Amino acid sequence: MTVFPTDKFKELRTPFYYYDMNLLNETLSIVKKESRKHDFHVHYAIKANANDRILEKIRENGFGVDCVSGYEIQKALDVGFSADGIVFAGVGKADWEIELGLKNDIYCFNVESLPELEIINDHAHKMGKKARVAFRINPNVHANTHHYITTGLDENKFGISMMDLENVLDKMVDMKNVQFEGMHFHIGSQITDLDNFKDLCLRVNELQEWFISKHLFPKVINVGGGFGIDYDNPDDNPIPDFAPYFKVFKDFLTVKPGQEVHFELGRSVVAQSGNVISRVLYVKEGVKTKFAILDAGMTDLIRPALYQAGHKVENISNPEGAKTRYDVVGPICESSDSFGKALDLPEMQRGNLVALRSAGAYGEVMVSRYNLRENPPAYYSDSL
Ligand SMILES: *Cc1c(COP(=O)(O)O)cnc(C)c1O
């Protein structure tokens, strides 16, 4: 459980990101332990948080990296991840990004369309290389999550549809500079019902038989990420339950001799370790409600505005105060710049420190300079 050093925070200008490095370390060691139990390989999805200190810890734990841009590949290399643990997904890989991946001999391109496969083959040919590729397949499996973070349905832009797969394989026969590694999936994010992953496993089992019937052996089954966290109760559930999560794949995925199972976890690894710390600027009486106006806004944590996501709001200066109802908002000139309506919180006063919890994933990485705001600094529990 994260304990905030409120006295130290008093000296600091807000808003800022605060990372609980003990919690991060504990989370990483559990991910490592539970995945290794089944010989699973974990690639950290760097788009969730690309802060150098965080990446350093993740690298020390021996994970690979899942990238969705050339910039992320470069970042992973710069902080010392080895290229042979890098996988690269994304529906719109630009030519320079493909070249960068090839030049550095990254482990695998997770290919999302036939035209992309053709371009990878062309570049690899020009560079005298052979690109390892896995097909990102859209399995049409529900993730029961917010529709903006569902990725594995027919209507989503991601992956190769099952209808198109046969055509892709036919065309691949003539491509001399790509080598088939396996299958890749990622059905969505913030998935808490493990049945969704079970459904994915069953679909993968069918699909791999289909590949084998086409005389292609998927050496790697990459099931992506998407494991959810408890945004409502970060202190009760600071570390997601990784044991049952991995066990679903152990129990329901048919793994053949010589096959590897890969994961791409982002949110579940880093979300609970991060927080946005802000101050109450004003408490304003509205017509129907009281507004607590913070100095942190959607520029610092965009998930509520972007996905209607909820982050627990905690008054850490006055935790025992009498409960009062507030709409908690930021200072940005957008009505969507809100962290929650009708929240019952300990009484808020100007200057109180407020933590926006579970902000370690898709928080700092999505910072923006809208309203020409400065990017907030980050502080770490082990070096404050
Ligand atoms: C975003 C993403 C992930 C990580 O998702 P989380 O929900 O953060 O675990 C994994 N794989 C791919 C391809 C992604 O785009």
From TrEMBL:
Domain of life: Bacteria
The protein's annotated pathway: Amino-acid biosynthesis; L-lysine biosynthesis via DAP pathway; L-lysine from DL-2,6-diaminopimelate: step 1/1
InterPro entries documented for this protein: Ala_racemase/Decarboxylase_C, DAP_deCOOHase_LysA, De-COase2_C, De-COase2_N, De-COase2_pyr-phos_BS, Orn/DAP/Arg_de-COase, PLP-binding_barrel
Positions of the catalytic residues: C333
Keywords associated with the record: Amino-acid biosynthesis, Decarboxylase, Lyase, Lysine biosynthesis, Pyridoxal phosphate
Cofactor dependence: pyridoxal 5'-phosphate
Modified residues (N6-(pyridoxal phosphate)lysine): K47
Residue ranges annotated for the Orn/DAP/Arg decarboxylase 2 N-terminal domain, each copy included: 39-271
GO molecular-function term, one example from the UniProt record: diaminopimelate decarboxylase activity
Any Pfam family the entry gives: Orn_Arg_deC_N
Similarity comment: family membership: Belongs to the Orn/Lys/Arg decarboxylase class-II family.
Name of the protein this chain belongs to: Diaminopimelate decarboxylase
Source organism of the structure: Marinilabilia rubra
Gene assigned in the entry: lysA
